[in-house]
Amino acid sequence: MNCDWIAPHYWWLEKLGMGRTLGRRRRWFLPSLKNSRRALVLGDGDGRFLRELLRQNPVVYAAYVDLSSRMLKLARHKAGVDRVAYKRADARTLEFAPGEYDLIATHFFFDCFGQHELEALISRIAAAATPGARWVVSEFCTTSIPARLLVRVLYLFFRITTGLKNQSLVDHRPILNAQGFRLIDASQSRGGLVVSELWER
Ligand SMILES: C[S@@+](CC[C@H](N)C(=O)[O-])C[C@H]1O[C@@H](n2cnc3c(N)ncnc32)[C@H](O)[C@@H]1O
User: Fold this and answer.
1) Residue 108's closest CA among 167, 169, 64?
2) Is residue 118 predicted with pLDDT exceeding 90?
3) Ligand 1 pocket, Cβ-based, cut-off 6 angstroms
4) Pocket of ligand 1, candidates 6, 53, 66, 161: which has the most ligand atoms within 8 Å of its Cβ, to mutate?
């Protein structure tokens, strides 16, 4: 997947297609993350979540990781360099320090991966989490036929614009469960099409 081309257009394409829904989902659990100190923010794209996290939590230090150099540049511009270490890297192969992070954030990131990739990725990230770590997830949910159709269109769009290989949504919940995380809160928009979840270990 290469988001360099789409990076500067991402925000307005999102607004055009989904209005404020995704932004609302990303921000939903921020009030519950005020005690976090070390955050691993994966695939955050242009940094809109990161910026809000830093605004609402004045003590958190964050590691931002994204594959796209253009996304990283936009994120650095939006969120600044105070309290953030930016890294352009593939999260599938990057080495994470064990037991380092008390907060993991993955918004609309799991959908980039197939079953085996996601299992391996979540297991590696989980090893980097502290015992009581929290994990915020935003994702699409395909429980209805219209939702399945919309997600298929979105996959086609990302395949054309970014070369995304994965073409279907994997259920991340059993994978997080298997890594010792339990769902402590969830919220949804648009009749369940988009969900935000708060997990804790
Ligand atoms: C669908 S976008 C979501 C962006 C943002 N999190 C949001 O809420 O809109 C997926 C992001 O994950 C990044 N990404 C995809 N695969 C990745 C990988 N293997 N390692 C790191 N970042 C990756 C892309 O560059 C892109 O910025």
Assistant:
1) 169
2) yes
3) 1, 3, 26, 43-45, 65-68, 71, 90-92, 107-109, 112
4) 66
Q: Which amino acid is at 121?
A: L
CB of 5 closer than 8 Å to CB of 27? no
- Look at phi and psi of residue 130 and say left if phi exceeds 0, alpha if psi is from -120 to 50, else beta: beta
CB 101 within 8 A of CB 78: no
Q: Are 170 and 161 in contact (CB under 8 A)?
A: no
Phi then psi for residue 178, to 5 deg, are -65, -20
**Tens-place pLDDT, residues 141-159:** 988 888 899 899 999 999 9
- What is the distance between the alpha carbons of residues 94 and 174, in angstroms, rounded to a whole number? 23
Count of C-beta atoms within a 10 Å radius of residue 120: 13
Taking CA atoms, 80 is separated from 7, 45, 75, 84, 111, in Å, by: 17, 14, 8, 8, 27
Cα of 27 vs its chain's centroid, Å: 12
Residue 88 near residue 67 (C-beta atoms within 8 A): yes
In this prediction the pTM is 0.95
104 in Cβ contact with 125 (< 8 Å): yes
